[in-house]
Amino acid sequence: MRDVEYVKRGAGDGAGETACPRASGHYFGGVKLLFIADIVGQPGRRAVKELVPQLRRRHGVSLVVANGENSAGGSGITLNTAQEIFAAGVDIITSGDHLWDQKEVMGLLENERRFVRPLNYPPGTPGQGSALFEAPGLPPVAILNLQGRTFMPSLENPFHAVLAEVQRLRLTTKIIFIDFHAEATSEKVALARMLDGRVSAVVGTHTHVQTADEQIFPGGTAFLCDGGFTGPHESVIGREIEPIIRRFMTNMPQKFEVAKGRVLLQGAVVEIDELTGRAKGIERVSEALPPKP
Ligand SMILES: [Fe+2]
Ligand SMILES: [Fe+2]
Description:
By secondary structure, this protein is α/β, with parallel strands linked by helices. 23% of the residues lie in helices and 24% in strands. It has a single domain, classed as Purple Acid Phosphatase, chain A, domain 2 (4-Layer Sandwich). The chain has helices at 41-59, 79-87, 105-111, 158-169, 185-194, 241-250, and strands at 6-8, 30-36, 63-67, 92-94, 130-134, 141-147, 176-181, 201-205, 215-216, 222-224, 231-232, 263-273, 279-288. It has a seven-stranded mixed beta sheet, covered by helices on one side. The radius of gyration is 18 Å and the shape is globular. Bound molecules: fe (ii) ion (FE2) (2 copies). The site of one fe (ii) ion has 6 residues, from loops.
């Protein structure tokens, strides 16, 4: 089993924003995590670049986690798109079933400590299923990425994989955030219920449709079944509308271009008690990017 390794951020990193909210006078007695759901293509990256600094200020955010599986042209992630997302103030990037769409991802899997892939790939798969984030004045925060198996490619059982990993991470921190990249609502609710009291929050991704079920379970785990997506919403889950309708009408292959209009940054802000690791609040985010003048 590998040792716990930290992703460290020094003061001054992160798109010119203050790294630690306490250092900037925003102390609130906990950790506030902004999670950004699937960033789709260039419009999604633009939303992150323009909106993350103001969301950081407005919510007094301690760290930002974003799912980047669709950030390169809607399919996968490259070194450049990852750098763009980090430069916008994102601290950790998670992924999902589009992990392998760009071959450059190998560079991220092998070298980038801030990049996390689903934990439940078979042993020997490059990359890491979790990362520990550390910044001045903050307790360590563990970020874990998992992928579901219902209506998705078959991976190792995420329920078993996550129990072992959470047990390992809790030796270091009680503050654990999970991006569960899965299709079926039942799989997401069941996994989050199983982990109630053992992790701070479970937020789902992959469907690109934001759900309205944010809640804190009795044991203190915050939950949102799906965070939605960050990109053009005048679309079918981020792609141009007409080719998708044609595909459903004809069953013939179509080119699915990333759409352009009505760009939203979607996800959630979770507030976590730093002593107990319990969630104190969860709020959905769906922030419009003002159209270009
Ligand atoms: Fe996905
Ligand atoms: Fe996605």
